[in-house]
């Protein structure tokens, strides 16, 4: 059995946030790195143009906010 079968993937939680203040690829990398270090995070996707942050895994909103602020940006 494949551990990443479609059934397993659909059971993962994905939360979407908006990050304010990112202006370049380095900004995106900083946010990905900080959020990716949160225990329980299994994936991070950041879109610079929209400010969209998608976080996969089991993680509290407060932990995401703190990580984004550590990277130097604001979660809105």
What does it look like?
- The chain is built from 3 helices and 4 strands; from the N terminus they run αβαββαβ.
- The protein has 76 residues and is of the alpha+beta class.
- The protein has one domain (14-75): Alpha-Beta Plaits (2-Layer Sandwich).
- It has a 4-stranded antiparallel β-sheet, with helices on one face.
- A hairpin with a 4-residue loop joins β2 (41-47) and β3 (52-57).
- The longest helix is centred in the middle third of the chain and has 12 residues, at 25-36.
Chart the SSEs and their pairings.
Layout: H1 6-11, E1 14-20, H2 25-36, E2 41-47, E3 52-57, H3 61-70, E4 74-75
Antiparallel strand pairs: 1-3, 1-4, 2-3
InterPro entries: Cu-bd, Heavy-metal-associated_CS, HMA_dom, HMA_dom_sf
Domain HMA: 13-76
Keywords: Metal-binding
The geometry reads as globular
CATH top level is: Alpha Beta
Low-confidence stretches: 1-10
Helix content range of the residues, please?
A: 25-40%
Total domain count: 1
Structural classification = alpha+beta
Q: Helical segment tally?
A: 3
What do we call the CATH topology?
Alpha-Beta Plaits
Order of helices and strands, N to C? HEHEEHE
Strand percentage? 25-35%
Quantity of strands, as a count:
4
Q: Note the main sheet.
A: 4 strands, antiparallel
Spatial sequence of strands, sheet with the most strands: 2-3-1-4
Radius of gyration (CA) equals 13 Å
CATH architecture: 2-Layer Sandwich
**N-C termini distance:** 40 Å
Average pLDDT figure: 89
């Amino acid at each position: 059995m494949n551990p990443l079968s479609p059934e397993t993937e659909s059971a993962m939680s994905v939360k979407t946030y908006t990050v304010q203040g990112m202006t370049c690829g380095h900004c995106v990398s900083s946010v990905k790195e900080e959020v990716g270090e949160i225990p329980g995070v299994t994936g991070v996707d950041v879109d610079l143009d929209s400010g969209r942050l998608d976080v996969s895994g089991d993680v509290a909103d407060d932990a995401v906010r703190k990580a984004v602020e550590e990277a130097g940006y604001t979660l809105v």
